[in-house]
Amino acid sequence: MKKIVVIAVLLAAIVFVGYEALIIIDNNFRYGRMRETPAVRPHEKELLTMKQGVIPFEGGEAIYRAADGKRLKSPFVKGDPNSIKLGKTLYFTYCAQCHG
C-alpha cells in the first residue's frame, strides 16, 4: 500500500511540474497567442468608414483572374540561396507554428 501512495505522489508531482512548465512556456511564447489577436475581438474598435466609390461593387476581382497563370513569372530566381534563406526565415516566423 505504501508503494502505491508513493507512486501516486510521484505521478502527481510529475504532472504538476509538467503543467507549470507548460504555463511558463505559454506565457513566454515568442510568437504570441492567437487568442490575443484583434481578430478574436473584432468589436473593440469602430468599423472604418470609407467614402462612396472607393470599393468597386462589380469587377473588383476580374483584374486578378484575367492574368493567364502560365504567363506569370516568379520574381525570385529558382535555387538562389538568398531567396531560400529568406523563405525559410519567413516560413519559421509566420507559418511554422501552425503548419509545422
Backbone CA Rg: 26 Å
Instruction: Based on Cα principal axes, name the global outline.
Output: elongated
Percentage of β-strand residues: under 5%
Q: What percent of residues adopt helix (DSSP H or I)?
A: 40-55%
Kindly report how far apart the N and C termini lie.
45 Å
Biggest sheet, open or closed, and with what strands and sense?
none
Structural class: mainly alpha
What are the segments in which pLDDT stays under 50 over at least 5 consecutive residues? Answer: none
Question: Can you count the beta strands?
Answer: 0
**DSSP helix count?**
4
> What is the string of SSEs from the N terminus onward?
HHHH
Mean pLDDT: 80
What does this structure look like?
This protein is an all-alpha fold and 100 residues long. Among the domains are: 1-30; 76-100, no CATH class. The chain has four helices and no strands. The longest helix has 26 residues, at 2-27.
Any key phrases for this structure?
100 residues, mainly alpha, 0% strand
Layout of secondary structure:
Blueprint: H1 2-27, H2 62-66, H3 81-94, H4 96-99
Please give a quick description of this structure:
The protein is 49% helix and 0% strand.
